[in-house]
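Chapter summary example.
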Amino acid sequence: MKPMNQENSDYIYGRNAVTEALKAGNPINQIFVASMHDSLGAICSMAKKQGIPVKVTDARKLDSMAGGGNHQGVCAEGACAKYVSVADILSICEKKGTKPFLILCDGIEDPHNLGAIIRTAEASGADGIILPKRRSASLTQTVFKTSAGAASWLPVARVSNLATEMIALKKQGLWFYGADMNGAPATKTDLKGAIGLVIGSEGFGLSEPVKAQCDAIISLPMFGKVNSLNASVAAGILMYEAVRQRSESQ
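The structure predicted for these 250 residues follows.
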């Protein structure tokens, strides 16, 4: 069966290969199975104990993931790097003596967009990325390649509920600014403190629970006939607006 490495695809397949990857603690985003019963039940149990999501899918999708290989009813999506906790990210900020500058991705499902966001976040000096476990791209090899390796350097945390995490972080002094075309101009919004920039999904923008936890909604000026920007492009512009303001305040 196929081992995970950066030269191969994002998937490990086959019961023994997936079992050994779980035993070894390899970074795995999620596992796809034909069933949660019989011999696959043990794999599902191991995955759940490690907090790895398990999804039941059909044979056609498993065939595609395995590239026609003998998947035996199970494929695991490998990660290009290990996730950290949100507390780990905040600890890095504390050690640097800087106010946290976080990027939250609310439903970014395109791995190329996520990779581009990670690349810009690392370049702009952001302290870390926070992703939801559901309805989001994760740290696959596609993300690694698109990020030009930045995914190896920028800490990425994955949480069960983004809105709930925002509530907890507010208690630690963070303010959240959600990107939306109907928001206030970003250039007229104070982004100098402990902040989290929240970027919504490519097609639907910010989810309502996440939007409700934003302290302000910010936007970019649009002068052309197209009234929206790609999520990663908008994220990059907003990050560097924050960089500009934070540099001027030093």
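To summarize the output: The first helix runs from residue 15 to 24.
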